[in-house]
Design a protein that fits this description.
3 strands, 4 helices, 2 domains, 90 residues, alpha+beta, elongated
Length: 90
């Protein structure tokens, strides 16, 4: 299917509204996370929608990297996003 200039112009309002909606959803999700840089294991597992032991096991298999801060393991937002985008595998 080929689009010409008039097709693109007619789609522009829909595209603009879609982008606004997605950006608002992303900003809302980010606000809920509180802008933290890292999350403890229980919180990180909850964000991923998995059990704490599942996340721990993935870390022990080397699929995700955690950092010990004090007595707890923490996961950076970047690492959680990487893990999620790769389907839970490294």
């Amino acid at each position: 299917m080929k689009l010409d200039a008039s097709d693109i112009d007619s789609l522009r309002p829909l595209l603009v509204e879609t982008v606004r909606t997605v950006l608002a959803e992303v900003q809302n999700a980010d606000a809920k996370l509180g802008g933290k840089l890292a999350y403890d294991e229980a919180t990180a597992a909850g964000l991923l929608g998995t059990a704490k032991y599942t996340l721990r096991d993935a870390r022990l298999r080397g699929e995700i990297t955690g950092v010990r801060i004090g007595k707890k393991i923490h996961y950076s937002r970047t690492e959680l996003l990487r893990y999620l985008s790769e389907g839970g595998k490294q």
